[in-house]
Amino acid sequence: MPEIPVVPALWRFPAHPASVGRARHAVMEALPYGLPPQLHAELGFITSELVTNAIRHGACADADEVVELVLWPTDGHYWLAVSDPGPGKPAVDHRPSPDTESGRGLLLVDALADAWAVVPRPYRGKSVVAGLALPSPG
């Protein structure tokens, strides 16, 4: 009999700045006890950055749009996908101006995640997917 895979955790939040903290809290609560504190912190940070970007650049709060999160462990990683209905494709600015107050989030996600990508959704929008490696048992 095949092993039943872990069912991903799924949340939908209004495209509103107050959803960033709620999303981060939901992800932190979904993580199992015993994960290293650094993995908790990095997943929390990546959640905050990707949800913030989705709300600012990919969704319209006036249109009652939502941001969707999916969290799942597989292949030795914790994967987080943050989806929004917007058409744009986020990209890393490798040389943000020292005077700007924003624009560094994806640069930090790029530094923390073992892998990340922007994946188009079949009908509308995109998902930004980031993976963090689980520590090796030992």
Q: Main beta sheet: strand number and arrangement?
A: 5 strands, antiparallel
From the helix content, strand content and strand pairing, which structural class follows? Answer: alpha+beta
The low-confidence parts are: none
Outline: globular
- For the record, the CATH class is Alpha Beta
Number of E strands = 5
Any guess at the CATH architecture? 2-Layer Sandwich
Distance between the termini: 28 Å
- By DSSP (H or I, 4+ residues per run), the number of helices equals 3
Give the total of domains.
1
Average of pLDDT: 88
The Rg value, from CA coordinates, equals: 15 Å
Order of helices and strands: EHHEEHEE
* Helix percent band: 25-40%
How does the SSE layout of this entry go?
Blueprint: E1 9-14, H1 18-30, H2 37-58, E2 66-74, E3 77-84, H3 105-112, E4 115-120, E5 126-133
Antiparallel strand pairs: 1-2, 2-3, 3-5, 4-5
GO molecular function: protein serine/threonine kinase activity
Domain Histidine kinase/HSP90-like ATPase: 13-118
Pfam families: HATPase_c_2
